[in-house]
Amino acid sequence: MAAALRRLLRRGKADAIPDVEEVESDRMDVESEADSGSSRPTSSLGGQTRMTTDSRSGSSSGIQRVQSASSSSGGPGRKEDDFASILDDEEICEEFRVYLRTTLDNNKSADPSFKKKFEVQLDFILIARQIFSAAEEDHEQTVRLMIDIGERFLAKPPAGHNIALSGQRNREDLVRHCKNLREGVENEVDSQLLRPGYEHLYTAVSRKYDLYKKTRPRTTLQALLCAIT
Question: Which of 36, 87, 180, 226 is deepest in the core (most CB within 10 A)?
Answer without folding.
Answer: 87
